[in-house]
Amino acid sequence: MSADVAEAPTSFAFDAESEDEIARILAKYPPGRQASGVLPLLYVVQRQMRRQTGSAWVPRVAMDTVAARLGMAPIRVYEVATFYFMFNTQPVGKWHLQVCTTTPCWLRGSDEVVAACRKATGIHGWGETSEDGLFTMIEVECLGACVNAPILQVNDDFYEDLDAERTTALLEALRRDAPPKPGSMSGRLNSAPEGGPTTLTEVGGTMDAGAAE
Ligand code: FES
Question: Where is this region: Disordered (predicted)?
Fold first, then answer.
């Protein structure tokens, strides 16, 4: 699949699942302030597009639908949707690979992750979609999870502590439509030290005499 604007739909309507979400979202805002819901409604669109087409993106006609629902000028919605890179304004593959290459991830081997992604998908440049339409790869700035660097975000999930081998295994699993549980791929618990905790390992221990003084 290529990210081709010709694939853009000519109409968009919220489905029942989206309408339920929208009712919950808009109930949070006082009367007349529903425009504040523009960001969550754009996420609603993106999730609905994934359900309906397998590609999580926000076509312009859907931005118009959001504008009409919130009583906003369409240009105000376009401004928001094109400012935040979390919204895809072109079609993306089923698995949207968002590789963090900012300094902590780079120091921990993001080059290896990028190389493994390229090798497994055949994608060469940022923003490209693989020939089979399964993967789109982009470069992103710090995802706020440096403690488990390097990080690869796939759709909405973080895969952490990656290296070339783990990245290749992850992409093979995605290709089989069997994504592993998100989180650390090294097996450590959350962001505990590799090899397990080294402090506070006993419950109910006593302080030694020196520490007590
Ligand atoms: S630098 Fe990659 S998560 Fe912070």
Answer: 174-213
Interatomic CA distance for residues 86 and 42, integer angstroms: 10
Cis check for the bond before 150: say yes or no (omega within 30 of 0): yes
User: Does the annotation list 105 as a binding residue?
Assistant: yes
For each of the domains in the chain, give its residue range(s) and CATH number, in order of start: 16-83 (1.10.10.1590), 95-184 (3.40.30.10)
Q: What is the pLDDT of residues 16-55, one digit of tens each?
A: 999 999 999 999 999 999 999 999 999 999 999 999 999 9
Distance 102 CA to ligand 1 centre (A): 6
Distance 99 CA to ligand 1 centre (A): 9
Closest approach atom of ligand 1 to CA 100: 2
In what helix (H) or strand (E) does residue 114 lie, and over which residues does it extend? helix 110-121
Ligand 1: lining residues by beta carbon, under 6 Å: 100, 102, 104-105, 142-146, 149, 151
pLDDT confidence tier of residue 5, bands split at 50, 70 and 90: very low
**Confidence category of residue 201, pLDDT binned at 50, 70, 90:** confident
Q: Residue 142 annotated as binding?
A: yes
**Ligand 1 center to residue 77 CA distance, Å?**
29
Rounded to the nearest 5 degrees, what angle is found at the Cα of 205, between the Cα atoms of 200 and 206? 120
Say whether pLDDT at 58 is over 90.
Answer: yes
The pLDDT score that the predictor gives to residue 1 is: 42
